[in-house]
């Protein structure tokens, strides 16, 4: 059933990156598996508990990493010549924009995290330590 779901997604959104990923995209997948996914439970704990200012630096690293990888993916979707990829890739501007709409939330959420960590007074104030 998961294979059918993948096939449906690829044909509906014309996303060749999922079936025939280029080497650079595979590198992003490995980064996601080994760096980003382990971050999720840690960040979930910190955000649900609240008051965890120590999450600021890891969240900034995570969000800038994800935003950087998504910029490369979005540029590939917008500018790559998919005519050589066979029937999988988007052929029209509308198809490119539809595929772009699938990836854009993965850019917006890390940017929201980044701006929260940088500009929220809750996370940006230095922690005051007691003097002994």
Automatic annotation (TrEMBL):
Annotated compartments: Rough endoplasmic reticulum membrane
Q: Where are the transmembrane segments?
A: 27-48, 60-79, 99-120
Membrane disposition: Multi-pass membrane protein
Q: Can you quote a single GO CC term?
A: rough endoplasmic reticulum membrane
Entry keyword set: Endoplasmic reticulum, Membrane, Transmembrane, Transmembrane helix
Q: Per the annotation, which location comes first and is thus the protein's main one?
A: endoplasmic reticulum
What are the EXPERA domain coordinates in residue numbering?
1-114
Question: Is the Transmembrane helix keyword given for this protein?
Answer: yes
What family does this chain come from, according to its entry?
Belongs to the TMEM97/sigma-2 receptor family.
Name-wise, this protein is Sigma intracellular receptor 2
Q: Which organism is it from?
A: Psophia crepitans (common trumpeter)
Taxonomy, top ranks, is:
Eukaryota, Metazoa, Chordata, Craniata, Vertebrata
Instruction: Give me the gene this protein comes from.
Output: Tmem97
